[in-house]
Design brief:
With 255 residues, the protein is an all-beta fold. It has strands at 21-25, 33-34, 44-46, 54-59, 64-68, 75-79, 87-92, 105-114, 123-130, 143-147, 157-164, 167-176, 183-191, 196-203, 206-214, 228-235, 243-253. The strands form two sheets. It has a nine-stranded mixed β-sheet with strand order 2-3-4-7-16-9-10-11-12, with no helix packed on it. Strand 5 and strand 6 form a beta hairpin. It is globular.
Length: 255
């Protein structure tokens, strides 16, 4: 059986004995969100870190976070307000993920963006891993994932993202997303040593990009840096709410 880095950990081959660190959520329960929640009654807690599972930072109003039954098993629905720059910034509490030598890290999400193309390119978004920040899209320290290029002319292009020490590389994957249509985005991150690492990026199962840094070759690989699961969606000049729907998130790293 060929090795699939995105397969269930029980299918791993070789001499791996210790189980990997695994996060998986298919968002099929209704444990939800209350704006300004400060009593640990929700999975998504606004403004106060380390209460719920996820910290929510909001710009604007009329935001929505809920588990919806619009797909089998449910989906996490994240919607901004209808004004320019309205933002939903979600991060899992605790920076539990760190590229490290010999510790392969894989990430996969099934998601879609809705009302993104009305008009064209009025959405800014990011999914993946990032250092803790209440406004990741405005700039953070370290990142690996996928997103938009932040420009009004960005269209529906899917960009691969890698960032180290606040210097980022955005690369057009050559793939576009369709409004209100699910896609899978995944990456495999391998730190070979303290000076060499690479990330392979996949869209709907196809390899679309590889970022490889060797001895300071300026690929912006975040060596030995702590990051956390991150979901961001922002209204970029539109007049209607922008929605990100997450079917599942899967992240795994060798211990």
């Amino acid at each position: 059986m060929a090795y699939d880095p995105f397969a269930h950990p029980l299918q791993l081959e070789g001499s791996i004995i210790d189980p990997p660190v695994v996060f998986f959520d298919d968002f099929n329960d209704g444990w939800g969100y209350e704006a300004g929640d400060d009593d640990n009654t929700g999975k998504f807690v606004e403004d106060t870190a380390n209460l719920g599972q996820w910290l929510v930072s909001v710009t604007g109003s009329s935001e929505v976070i809920k588990v919806a039954d619009t797909e089998p098993g449910g989906v996490l629905t994240i919607s901004t307000g209808s004004s320019d720059n309205d933002l939903m910034n979600l991060q899992q509490n605790g920076e539990a993920w760190r590229p490290a030598a010999g510790k392969e890290l894989v990430y996969k999400v099934r998601m879609k963006l809705t009302a993104a193309l009305t008009p064209l390119a009025t959405i800014d978004w990011f999914v993946g891993l990032a250092t803790t920040s209440t406004a990741v899209l405005a700039g953070t320290v370290e990142r690996i994932g996928f997103g938009s290029n932040g420009l009004d002319a960005g269209g529906a292009d899917i960009y691969t993202v890698i960032e180290d020490a606040s210097t980022e590389t955005l690369t057009d994957s050559g793939e576009d997303y369709a409004d209100d249509t699910f896609m899978t985005l995944a990456f495999r991150c391998v730190q070979v040593s303290s000076t060499e690492g690479y990330v392979k990026y996949y869209v709907n199962g196809a390899l679309v990009d590889t970022r490889h840094e060797v001895s300071g070759s300026s690929a912006n690989f975040p060596f030995d840096d702590d990051m956390t699961l991150t979901l961001c969606v922002q209204n970029n000049g539109g007049t209607s709410a922008k929605t990100m729907e997450i079917d599942y998130i899967y992240c795994r790293q060798v211990r």
